[in-house]
Design a protein that fits this description.
CP_ATPgrasp_2, 5-stranded mixed beta sheet, Circularly permuted type 2 ATP-grasp protein
């Protein structure tokens, strides 16, 4: 029998089916359910998700291709004590990242102290010189952060990456919970599960708290690139749940130093824009002149302090995969604390010694493009062919600074329904951290699951699915 080399979330001993204490009630319930009932409930969830329109547009495929994101009914359960530690670590991390963003666009103390090389910031493709000297409300840049957390080894948690530009996925967290409560209400009577349905209220309160100075009743909108964006469902969902308008760039205009929204009752001033549009497309007068998604003059209003953008322009320099390596240093520099949750050891291919190691060990490493997301532009060495590895080797040699590499972690696994029955599949977790007057988050987050056997790539764009995430209150 093969030795299990990953941490199993549900079983302390998978061979003997020894269940971890926090899964006891769920395991007992699952063993009592007829297989026909479970199959019917799974089919029902697929039907409901498709009717509601919970799909994910996939780039690079035929135009208009949309997939149903597979949903698995076996939840990922996190004990209260574990969540408390993770929550503290995420608060610490996002606080330091916001301090870093303020610093690099103002005094640049961390560069002057020699903690981070100047080229790491100033030559970074996501650094926006236009943001230098701009004072944003409460010095908050990353109002919404999606921090990807994985579990490896004997069960230690690690931060895999920070998503600070336009992090997505929270709508699936909310819809997964609604689905579980609809399909299996009896489970929620057996467990004290922390609620997540209040997230839209938390988000709206957070956005309103970051309005420009002097605005007591701010108008908030969600700005989307439009219906062809892969996360459009989420944009529309969050606007509807918060009770605010969903707008595109063409719905907004700048006049006399303010942003206005076109309405049937005439122009209405907008104070806070939760933008799901990338920096380059926000203002054709300041960034890409060919952008039809943005608002001409938006940056000038922003610089004047007359509108809040969430997240702020220029946050991408902090979720760059090469900047990730320095987050523990940021925590020490700004907070004088040790990180509560560690980084995954990371090799920076722009360093000659790291590059040599990476090129010699590609078959054992995960290599990522520093600006890419969604599981694109990466190599998972152990799962790649010799030809794929050699092709990637050529890409790294051509532009070493564009890549980082990490050990291939044996991500923790959670039992998951697959065609052959219930089997372990690797998972990660994306908690959503809100920064405003306070740093807050919903208990849990989005658990993503790699549905292919042995796969470590959980992204929806790469065939991954999702699970409901339960944080137990006691």
């Amino acid at each position: 029998m093969a030795v299990q080399r990953f941490f199993d979330e549900m079983y302390s001993d998978a061979a003997s089916r020894q269940v971890r204490p926090h899964y006891d009630h769920f395991d007992q319930w699952l063993r009592e359910q007829p297989s026909e009932l479970i199959a019917a409930k799974r089919a029902e969830s697929d039907l409901i998700f498709r009717r509601v329109g919970i799909t994910f547009a996939v780039y690079g495929e035929e135009a208009g291709t949309e997939r149903l994101i597979p949903f698995d009914i076996i939840p990922r359960i996190i004990p209260a004590a574990e969540w408390k530690t993770m929550e503290a670590g995420l608060r610490q991390r996002v606080t330091a990242l916001n301090m870093f963003l303020h610093d690099i666009y103002h005094e640049q103390k961390i560069i002057k102290a020699g903690v981070i090389p100047p080229e790491q910031i100033l030559r970074n493709g996501q650094f926006r010189a236009e943001m230098q000297g701009i004072d944003v409300p409460q010095q908050i840049y990353a109002h919404i952060a999606g921090v990807d957390v994985v579990r490896a080894g004997a069960g230690e948690y690690y931060v895999l990456e920070d998503n600070l530009r336009v992090p997505s996925g929270v709508s699936y967290m909310l819809e997964d919970r609604k689905m579980m409560m609809r399909l299996f209400p009896e489970l929620f009577a057996k467990h004290r599960i922390a609620p997540v349905a209040h997230y839209p209220d938390m988000l709206l309160e957070n956005l309103r708290s970051c309005a420009p100075q002097g605005i007591s009743d701010p108008t908030v909108v969600v700005m989307t690139p439009g219906m062809y964006n892969s996360a459009y469902f989420e944009h529309a969902f969050l606007a509807q749940q918060m009770g605010v308008e969903l707008v595109e760039g063409q719905d907004l205009f700048v006049d006399k130093g303010y942003v206005f929204m076109r309405t049937t009752r005439g122009p209405q001033r907008v104070d806070v824009i939760y933008r799901r549009v990338d920096d380059d497309f926000l203002d054709p007068l300041a960034f890409r002149p060919d952008s039809s998604l943005g608002v001409p003059g938006l940056l000038s209003v922003y610089r004047a302090g007359n509108v809040t953008l969430a997240n702020a322009i220029g946050t991408g320099v902090a979720d760059d995969k090469s900047t990730y390596c320095f987050v523990p240093d940021m925590i020490k520099f700004y907070l004088d604390e040790d990180p509560i949750i560690s980084n995954v050891p990371t090799y920076q291919c722009r360093k000659e010694s790291d590059l040599s190691y990476v090129l010699a060990n590609l078959k054992d490493l995960v290599v990522k493009e520093i600006h890419n997301a969604g599981g694109y532009g990466m190599l998972v060495g152990p799962a790649s062919t010799t030809a794929e590895i050699e092709d990637f080797r050529a890409k790294i040699k051509a532009n070493p600074g564009n890549y980082i590499a990490q050990p291939t972690l044996a991500l923790s696994a959670c039992p998951t329904f697959v065609e052959a029955g219930i089997a372990p599949r690797h998972i990660d977790l994306r908690p959503f951290v809100l920064s405003g007057k306070n740093v807050s988050m919903c208990p849990g987050g989005l658990t993503r699951v790699a549905l292919r056997e042995g796969s470590l790539v959980v992204n929806s764009s790469q065939g991954g699915g999702t699970k409901d995430t339960w944080v137990l209150e006691s």
